[in-house]
Fold:
Amino acid sequence: MLNTEIDIYIIGAGISGLIAAYELERAGFSPIILESDKAVGGRVRSDYQDGFIFDRGFQVLLTAYPEAQRYLDYHALNLKKFDPGAIILRPGNLFTIHDPLRNPLKIVSMAFSSVGTFMDKIRMFKLTQSLKSKTEDEIFNEPNKTTLQFLRDYGFSEKIIENFFMPFFRGIFLENELETSSRMFNFVFKMFSMGHAAVPENGMQAISDQLKSKLAKTSIRLNAAVEKIDGNVIELSSGERINAGKIIIAVRPDKFLSQMEGQFKPSRKVINLYFSLEKSFFASPMIGLVTDKQFLVNNLVFMTDVSKSYAKSDRALLSVSITKPIQADDKLIEMVKIELEALTHIKSEHFKLEKIYEIEDALPQVEDMKSSISATQTKIYDHVFLSGDYLLNGSINAAMTAGRKSAEAVILSIQPNMN
Ligand SMILES: Cc1cc2nc3c(=O)[nH]c(=O)nc-3n(C[C@H](O)[C@H](O)[C@H](O)COP(=O)(O)OP(=O)(O)OC[C@H]3O[C@@H](n4cnc5c(N)ncnc54)[C@H](O)[C@@H]3O)c2cc1C
Structure:
């Protein structure tokens, strides 16, 4: 019989911590989550303020994520999909490329010719087809090279790299040189070609809230910041000491465990500004890409084109992302407004700043990106287990996998003969 009375503590109520709790509940346990913040969700949070929904950093759910399909009820989230493709913005000139990742051969040649060559279209098609036949594990077992190197080796022209891949994937990897592993590029490319980018009708927070609502036997202690772990004892910043049977650390562990210090590279950062305007200047719910490298703005999206709920008023809510290493200050806001005016010819005073986020720890930098990890690899001591996207790759999908694997490892450690 499995001893389900054991006290299992999970540190962190991000996606990975919530999934770990869910899996432990399914096995009969009643875990306790210690979360430093005042709400669950970690990096998948939204603020509901002044009649707007502000996701904490622009982010999307890719509906093809296998783990998201397993754990989320898409219907209840009322997912609002982006149109596939992108709007390319150059000063005073805006045009759409429809569906380059799913139907590259169908893209109208005229529109495509300003971003890539005929052979690029053929190569896109070839890549899409080959990725469709590969499993996630096969993709993540391929040799590790940078995305930029992969694109060049695959034969893509510099034109399409500069005009499409660079701005599109900068906005996803949150770095400027496409030095992220090609494994992640291929995985994301496959996900885009098999599904949609989407947000829940009521913001990304709805994902975290849905996962929380699936927990019936888990206690969640909010505002409970863990300071350190000493053997089986968890010490909170309040001074409270807790004796734990098992501990899952669902956040980067270096701050609690001195032996892990220095093992992680700094995370990727992003700045996200929200502006409201009288109306959207995009004709469809699409991601806009700024191709000119001189610009600070990398990508922009009218969230209200994707889901009307993002603004209660009839204002349009524009989300602008900046991946360049720069500080978020008044000068930046002015520069962004000037850039928006240059790109759209809409006077800068029409862009009303509503909110700004400077997210220091947006994505982990993982050297050896993986799709999964064995349950035993998550175990660092008999009673301490790791979870979180930093173990695999920076995505909601990876956070879910890590959560499940850490829960499996805990269960195995309690009853080692269990399958
Ligand atoms: C701006 C941005 C854009 C992104 N875009 C995408 C995207 O488009 N698609 C995608 O799939 N993924 C995206 N991601 C990544 C995705 O959000 C993460 O991979 C995922 O949410 C990580 O979940 P996690 O549970 O591993 O970590 P976290 O969400 O970081 O959870 C860790 C939790 O631990 C808590 N915590 C921290 N310290 C303590 C402590 N001392 N004591 C107790 N609790 C503590 C934190 O408050 C947090 O709740 C994006 C992330 C950001 C920030």
Q: What stands out?
A: The domain at 52-199+268-363 is CATH 3.90.660.50 (Polyamine Oxidase; Chain A, domain 2). The radius of gyration is 22 Å.
